[in-house]
Amino acid sequence: MTREELAREAARRTGLTVREVQSLTVVLLDIITEALSFGESVFLRGFGCFSTKKGKQRRARDPARGGVMEIPSRVKPVFKPYEALKEAVHLGLSERVRVEFLCLGCSEASSVSVVGDWNGWNPETNPMQKLPDGSWVAEISLHAGRTINYSYSVDGALRPDSLHPPKAPGGASVRRI
Question: 95-176: CATH homologous superfamily?
Fold first, then answer.
């Protein structure tokens, strides 16, 4: 995404004109540049931190004279993303996998659903299907490479997965997918 595309998207989302967004972008980048040039850090909560880091002095081959030359250390800008940004990028780009959930010992229940940190613990979003043997099953597409905390909502009461005993605080089951 270019600066122009960024300005157009921000204008679309905010109702500002593209020119206003471009002006604001220039001002914000100037402020960040000035802060870094004075040795300050810029913290953007939930996004990341712009700061500076001093590099090391090093030696390199001098191609003009055939000897060795000293390259002085430089101060360079660095960006450290915060966890929310890392997670957003991971969720946006990671592969999705189908995860099967099987709830046993709830044959008398009238409704069972899978609830967890991926769906805000909402029992409405992932209902399970009752099988003839009285067990309940659901297959859900989730992002690969993460650990999930989950439970079963059995007639409105949370119950951990008997196949994956609880390890998380609050009695939730934990699985790496």
Answer: Immunoglobulins (2.60.40.10)
Length of the chain measured in residues: 177
Single-letter code of the amino acid located at 82: Y
Helix (H, G, I), strand (E, B) or coil at 2: coil
- The tokens for 145 are 């490479």
Give Cα 37 distance to the centre of its chain. 30
Top-level class of domain 3-91: few secondary structures
Residue pLDDT, tens place only, 71-106: 999 999 999 999 999 988 988 888 999 999 999 988
Q: What angle do CA 10, 15, 17 make, to 5 degrees?
A: 75
Convert the pLDDT of each residue in 94-147 to its tens digit. Answer: 899 999 999 998 889 999 999 998 899 999 999 999 999 999 999 999 988 888
Residue 7 and residue 25 in contact, taking contact as beta carbons nearer than 8 Å: yes
Place of tokens 């890392």: 86
What is the pTM assigned to this prediction?
0.61
Tell me the domain boundaries of the chain. 3-91, 95-176
Residue with token string 């540049």: 33
Between CA 115 and CA 135 the distance in angstroms is 17
Cβ–Cβ < 8 Å for 160, 172: yes
